[in-house]
Design goal:
Structural class: alpha+beta
CATH architecture of the largest domain: Roll
Number of strands: 17
Helix content: 10-25%
Shape: globular
CATH class of the largest domain: Alpha Beta
Order of helices and strands: EEHEEEHEEEEEHEEEHEEEEH
Number of helices: 5
Largest sheet: 17 strands, mixed
CATH superfamily of the largest domain: Diaminopimelate Epimerase, Chain A, domain 1
CATH topology of the largest domain: Diaminopimelate Epimerase, Chain A, domain 1
Length: 281
Amino acid sequence: MRAMTLDHATGLPFMKMHGLGNDFVVLDARAQAVQLREGLVRLIADRHRGIGFDQLAVISETPDGDAQLLFYNADGSTSAACGNATRCIARYLMDEGGKSSLTLITERGKLRALDAGGGLTSVNMGLPQLVWSDIPLAGPMDTLELPIEGAPTATGMGNPHCTFFVPDADEVDLEALGAQFEHHPLFPKRTNVQFATVTGADRLRMRVWERGVGVTLASGSSSCATAVAAARRGLTGRRVVIDLDGGTLEVDWREDGVWMTGATTHVASGYLTQAFLDSAT
């Protein structure tokens, strides 16, 4: 059989990573210029015709920190925050540079990342946004209990979140309700939707519908928002363990921000061919 060859010089290198099954395509613009069109993002996100991802992240250089990160959702829209992707990239950059801490620049601001030991990575996702205009919501209201059936809590983590506390998160029709509430008129920029159940002392079971993506196995910013919402409602303390479909995260709401700790995986590295890149509309 004749060996297959690939001209790497004309392709675009990428990495595939995931945090608890919340998966990402990562492009490193420090090594090669990256030009993304919305159609190309959606094509790469296609799990049949592309690579597939929940979010795509671009790493670039910045004078203000170790790297700058830009995030895209699977539908081609951008997101100011993506906690699990931030942890994955932080682990990659710490291993690359032999560092145990980093400063990453995102639309959310400067985020500090630390090697937590045992293969785990921690990221400070910043202070939660609790005022209606910062999340944002459509008008002035109490963010602790929204005037929606189920009285969810709204939280901003650089992106908007709507958290329902329910008797059993596993019984929720996540696809139907997630899609419904993502587009609720109270959220002018749409919202991520979580359904959470208290399962023990400072422990939550949570399932996620991500804005612009759909059902995901995990979400870092959603986990942070849910932990903040649970603490505000007196359901838990400020440090919790959250069990998601893809695994477990630890979230700690401190004075300097919401810290999230968990495992990361660098699955593979490869190249998008020039023919594939040219096929995007």
